[in-house]
Each structure stands twice: as C-alpha cells, then as structure tokens.
Design goal:
Blueprint (H helix, E strand, L loop, with lengths): L2 E4 L1 H5 L8 H11 L6 E7 L11 H6 L9 E6 L2 H8 L4 E9 L2 H8 L3 H18 L2 E7 L12 H13 L4 E6 L6 H14 L4 E6 L6 H11 L3 E4 L20 H10 L8 H14 L7
Parallel strand pairs: 1-2, 1-8, 2-3, 3-4, 4-5, 5-6, 6-7
Length: 287
C-alpha cells in the first residue's frame, strides 16, 4: 500500500501574505478527512525566517482530530522548536531538515554540517522522552546547485550516519528539482534493502512537466511512501533559487489508479479539500 504525506505546510510557507490561522485550520481540517497517512501541517521554526508558520500552535488548537487516522507532523530546526512541538500530544512526528549540502544547511537552518548532525541526536533524545518519532529530511540528496561535493557514496555515508543514530524514518529530498530517474531508481532500490529497518520516503520538488519519469522511477524501484501537495504549490524559500513546485497529489493518485496500485485516499474528499485550498491560497500563487 502506498503511503502519502500531504504537506500544506510546504505549500503555504513561502507565501508572503499572511493567511489567518482560521483559514489555515479550515483547509487542514478538510485534508484530515481525505485519508492521508500523515499531514505535514506546520512548523516550529524561527518566525523571522518563516513568518507564515508563526501561528502553528494556534492552528493546532483549531484542528478536529476526533475522527481521523491521519497523524500530524511538524517541522523543527532547533532544540527549542523540538521541545515545543514535542509538548503537543496531537503531534506524532517531528520532521528535521537535515541536508547533504553544507551551503544549504547554512542557508536553511544556519548550521554547519557537524552542528546539524549533532542536532539529530538532540531531537532524537526529545522524541524518545516524549514518545514521538523523528523524520529526517535528507535534502539535496540528488545533488545541489551550489557546487558542494555530491556522490552516491556520500549519500550512502550520510544514511549510515543516520542509521547509527537510530533514525528509522528518512525522506530522500530533491529540494531543487534536479533528480535524475536513474539515480532515483538506484537509491530506492539499494537503500531499503541495506537498511530494512528504515522507512524511506520521497520528497520530490518537480515541475509538472518532469514529475512522471521521476515518480515512475521511484515506484518501480519499490518506493511506497511519497510527499505530495494539492496543486503542487510550494518549495523551500531558503534555497536561493526560484521555488520549485511539489509533486501534485492528483498526479500521484492518477498514476496509482492507472496502474492498479492501492491507496487509501477518498478522492471525493480530496476534491473538496482542493476547493477549500483555492479559497485559502492568494490568487497570484495558484498554479
């Protein structure tokens, strides 16, 4: 069964105009009815760096979690954010934006590679104490636009480091939309076999024109866990590059259904959520 993490957080974080908490909550509540496995709903990071997510705690109070099996994930980038997120019983996963690229780590969370790796341990300790699960987003895993060193061997080394720290959820992230299908296929063929205890997911930033070969390469290699965004909006505003769209939820669902692959999504509820999303997202950001 294909697992799906829907990410309204990724869709909204780069929008400059403030979206009121009530509107965010209305949209997220509609997503909670769709059947997603996980909802990446917000983040506890610097309000100066990502002002759109400064009201995540307020949004959480407005969510109706009484009749959903969907689990909540929040992004954290330091000890304080992890402790804050871990204090909410409603949150199951703490997502940490680690990266292969030292340049991106400095841009995104203002840390060196050594500092960023040490923070994995800190967040893991917090997760163990509070019965949460850490998801490490291994960004720039398919290369980077900064000229930083990259190779498949370096990818394997980073995964080994994370495995040794007890990390069992790793999202292989194409942060700037440069992944090659052959590399996608190799990583998703080799890594799950070498580390069967780790749940590897695919966080794919891609234009609509390029999603199909990348998605197909991952699925044929055995990937069963994907991050998506309705409408494909979003991207990381810290890359220094123009925002690259996310894998569209409908594109994944259409691929699964056309290939007779099972999923848990209520497509009618998904359509309703998409319509509510159109009310929330400012017109100039809509695709």
């Amino acid at each position: 069964m294909i697992q799906i993490t829907e990410s309204p957080r990724d869709a909204m974080q780069g929008i400059i105009e403030y979206i009121p908490a009530e509107k965010k909550a209305k949209f997220i509540n509609s997503l909670l009815k769709v059947g997603f496995d996980v909802l990446d709903f917000g983040s506890f990071v610097s309000a100066k760096a990502v002002p759109q997510m400064a009201d995540t705690a307020e949004v959480l109070k407005l969510l109706d979690l009484t009749s959903t099996k969907t689990k909540l994930l929040a992004i954290v980038a330091n000890k304080q954010g992890a402790e804050t997120a871990a204090g909410f019983n409603e949150i199951a996963f703490l997502g940490y934006p680690y990266a292969m690229s030292p340049t991106f780590l400095r841009r995104n969370i203002n840390k060196t590679s050594e500092e960023a790796l040490a923070l994995v341990d800190t967040i893991q300790e917090i997760c163990i104490k509070t019965n949460k699960t850490q998801v490490v987003y291994l960004s720039m895993v398919f290369g980077n636009p900064y000229g930083d060193n990259w190779s498949k061997e370096l990818v394997y080394n980073e995964v080994e480091k994370l495995s040794s720290k007890g990390i069992n959820f790793i999202s292989l992230s194409d942060t700037v939309g440069i992944s090659e299908p052959s590399i996608i296929a190799e990583l998703f063929s080799i890594l799950p076999k070498k580390y069967p205890q780790i749940n590897f997911s695919f966080h794919l930033h891609t234009t609509p024109e390029m999603y199909f070969p990348r998605l197909e390469a991952a699925i044929k290699a055995g990937c069963t866990n994907f991050d998506t965004v309705i409408g494909g909006l979003g991207g990381c505003p810290m890359t220094g590059n123009e925002l690259v769209a996310n894998l569209q939820t409908w594109h994944l669902i259409q691929y699964l259904e056309s290939n007779n692959l099972p999923h848990t999504i209520n497509t009618q509820a998904l359509q309703m959520a998409a319509e509510i999303g159109l009310e929330v997202i400012p017109a100039e950001y809509k695709k």
